[in-house]
Design brief:
- By secondary structure, this protein is an all-alpha fold.
- It has a domain of 37 residues.
- The mean pLDDT is 83.
Length: 56
């Protein structure tokens, strides 16, 4: 998810891809974008934590 958004933003900046409304993950000012990015990161961390049974 993050790599696709970064790839799209770099392509738009270099004029190689059409301009869309995709925000740069974890760097944009939009509130809903940062919330969904943090939610996705938290979900992946939670799955990894539960699979390996890491004790903190």
């Amino acid at each position: 998810m993050f790599l696709a958004q970064v790839f799209e933003n770099v392509g738009m900046t270099m004029s190689m891809m059409p301009i869309t409304g995709i925000t740069l993950p974890l760097m944009s000012y939009g509130g809903s974008s940062i919330v969904t990015s943090m939610l996705g990161v938290g979900l992946v961390l939670n799955v990894g934590y539960r699979r390996k049974k890491i004790k903190f």
